[in-house]
Amino acid sequence: MGTAGTPQRRAILTGGLAATAALLTACSSKTDTTSTGKAAGAAGTPAPASPAAAARPDSPWAAFARLMDGNKRWVDGKLQHPDRDPKRREFVAEAQDPYGVILSCIDSRVPPELVFDTGLGDLFVMRTGGQVVGPVVVGSVEYGPMTSGTPLIVVLGHQRCGAIKAAYEALRDGKTLPGNLQAISDALRPAYRETVKKKHADPVDAMVRIHIDQTAADLRSNKDLAPLVKKGDLAVVSAYYSLDTGRVEVLTGAPSA
Ligand SMILES: [Zn+2]
Fold first, then answer.
1. d(CA 179, CA 195)
2. Average pLDDT over residues 93-114
3. Structural domain includes residue 2
4. What is the per-residue pLDDT for 25?
5. Are 205 and 241 in contact (CB under 8 A)?
6. How far apart are CA 102 and CA 199, in angstroms?
7. Which InterPro entries match (predicted)?
8. 3 lies in some domain
9. Ligand 1 centroid – CA 205 distance (Å)
């Protein structure tokens, strides 16, 4: 790309986050999930919306139920692959309105869109080694809930997490991990400290679960998200993914209907 970029690109750059946030906010209106569709409405030409898009979950419970239904299909091998066709691409091209935020590990065996059987425009997804967070990641997690009312955050850890195993062993042995991997180990120190307070048959698995719960608790109580949680507009769920079965086990924070 040249230095000036295209007009659209310049508009995006100069408009920045505020413009995008305004766009997202505009499209998150509760009455905007009707059959005409957001992108179609903006263009003035109604286009058929997929059934999934028309029924976009707007409450923490509805979003949670949608995700868990998708996970059940994944476990049972009955995938529907919703929201993955060209119609859906057109529908969300102008604006997006995901119903969930997933913070998960980079592990190649835990792709959120597959394990929850979702499609285009359904989820904001953040993935880091051991799903550790820092200011940039937390800001990215907060983006949907704070700008467009995304009603659900799921912190998803998983069985046999290599990042957490490596950090556990390094912290236990007082070793430094190579390069920037040490930053992941540093971020996992609070979970390690909590883990070694008790004896566990499988301390790495215990540390995975402790880390998921700590991360979800931190998000739930942070100054930006806590007011949304208190109002019932947002749920922050901690969950554990089994590589063996494909099942997502909810640990804490499941919203009620
Ligand atoms: Zn992992």
1. 25
2. 97
3. no
4. 43
5. no
6. 30
7. Carbonic_anhydrase, Carbonic_anhydrase_sf
8. no
9. 11
Question: Is it the case that residue 11 has pLDDT exceeding 80?
Answer: no
**Which pTM value belongs to this model?**
0.81
Strands 248-252 and 235-241, bridge-based pairing:
antiparallel
pLDDT of 21 strictly over 80 = no
CATH number at residue 68: 3.40.1050.10
Q: Calculate how far, in angstroms, residue 43's C-alpha sits from the geometric centre of ligand 1.
A: 42
Measured in Å, residue 38 CA sits from the centre of ligand 1 at: 36
**Which range of residues forms the domain containing residue 188?**
9-252
Nearest CA among 176, 154, 165 for reference residue 65: 154
Q: How far is the CA of 91 from the centre of ligand 1 (A)?
A: 33
The chain-wide mean pLDDT, for the chain, equals 85
- pLDDT tens digits along 177-231: 999 999 999 999 999 999 999 999 999 999 999 999 999 999 999 999 999 999 9
Q: Is residue 30 part of a domain?
A: yes
What spacing in Å lies between the alpha carbon of 208 and ligand 1's midpoint?
9
120 belongs to a structural domain: yes
- Structure confidence by residue, pLDDT tens digits, 45-99: 444 445 444 478 999 999 999 999 999 999 999 999 999 999 999 999 999 999 9
Ligand 1 centroid, distance to 130 Cα (angstroms): 5
- Residue 55 is predicted with a pLDDT of 72
Q: Count up the domains in the chain and report the number.
A: 1
